[in-house]
Amino acid sequence: MEMDSNETQPTVVVSSPPGRISLRPMTLSDVDDYMVWATDAEVARFCSWEPCTSREEAIKYITDSVLTHPWLRAICLEDDRPIGYILVMPVDNIRKEIGYVLARKYWGKGFATEAVRLVTAEIFKEMPEIERLEALVDVDNMGSQRVLEKVGFTREGVMRNYIIMKGSVRDMVMFSFLPSDPFK
Amino acid sequence: SFTSEEEALVFMRDACLPHPWRRSISIDDRSIGFISVFPETGDDSINWGKGIATRAVSIAVPQVFNDLPHVLRLQAFVQTQNKASQRVLEKVGFQREGLLRKYSYLKGEIHDVFVYSLLLSPDLLPLP
Question: Sorted alphabetically, which Pfam families does this protein's record hold (chain B) (predicted)?
């Protein structure tokens, strides 16, 4: 649960080949780009949150939940405008969980795959005590499962009736990546 | 493990009695072990003794679902080398869902574990 106390300036991570995506902290000035995906019911479908309905709501959410997050990065194209974000949550002292969201217009182009690959590599460098990075994906969310498989995550199994999401009981697929695993 | 009766009594007072669901496994009304069910995820769900574990688990399961009406899923995490424990769960009707690598941190060591689950429906209650 601890933030890295030496991290005063979160680094900008650029992908290779250069120019595809970069990762940087979110700011309040990203609110309009944030609303593009946050208001989209298709994007929200497998997320724990309901679509955003106003700019005020978006500003509040960014202030309360996004800017305060221990590890969250905007996924940006060349113009430095976010098309989504990726985050890492602590599970316990040795385990982290990864999550990501992307505006629908940018689905199917490999951007999420690239972001996950970058963050996975980065996280193990930043936090060498981490033994396992995991992801839980709704059993019906094929796109997100493909992202993790393309990066090289191991699909470990389906956890039945694992979680209640927006009032429904859902099966979730568990994926993991260990520091010793190879990237695809 | 405990080295004195006093330590054991403290454990019983502080951990067992307030526990959300823990029952003594008894023979002739004397306790020989315990079986516990934790809410939420994370900890090992079931401890057992030799030879009677299957019986204890199969008695406990319907009681748990009855006592805790909001529970839909019971899960257990078993280390990969613990074949006896896996057999107990399988005999009771738990389904093995997968191998979780480096999932469990116990006594300073990190282990791979199998995750098993038993669902109120359809595992315990047959579908109409």
Answer: Acetyltransf_3 (PF13302)
Which chain B residues have a beta carbon less than 8 Å from that of A177? none
Number of helices (H) and strands (E), helices first, in chain A?
5, 8
Beta strands in chain B (DSSP E): 22-27, 30-36, 73-79, 95-106, 109-119
Question: Quick one: B33 and B44 in the same domain?
Answer: no
Domain presence at residue A6:
no
From CA B32, how far away is CA A182, in angstroms rounded? 47
Enter the tokens of residue A14.
């650029």
Check whether residue B46 and residue B86 sit in a common domain: yes
* A7-23 confidence digits (pLDDT tens): 455 666 665 554 589 99
Question: Looking at the predicted structure, is the pLDDT value of residue A58 above 60?
Answer: yes
Q: Is residue B105 less than 8 Å (CB to CB) from chain A?
A: yes
B15: domain range? 1-38
In the predicted structure, residue A36 carries a pLDDT above the cut 50: yes
With beta carbons under 8 A apart, name residues in chain A contacting B100. Answer: 156-157, 174, 176
B103 touches chain A (CB under 8 A): yes
Number of domains in chain B: 2
For A65-120, what is each residue's pLDDT tens digit?
999 999 999 999 999 999 999 999 999 889 999 999 999 999 999 999 999 999 99
In this structure, the answer to whether residues B62 and B102 fall within a common structural domain is: yes
ipTM: 0.86
Least CB-CB distance to B119: which of A157, A158, A160? Answer: A160
The pairing of strands A154-165 and A22-24 is unpaired
What's the pTM?
Answer: 0.81
Query: What pLDDT was estimated at residue A4?
Result: 45
Domain check: are B15 and B48 in the same one?
no
User: How many folded domains does chain A comprise?
Assistant: 1
Domain-embedded: residue A108: yes
Positions of chain B with pLDDT under 70? 1-51, 127
Domain identity same for B58 and B26:
no
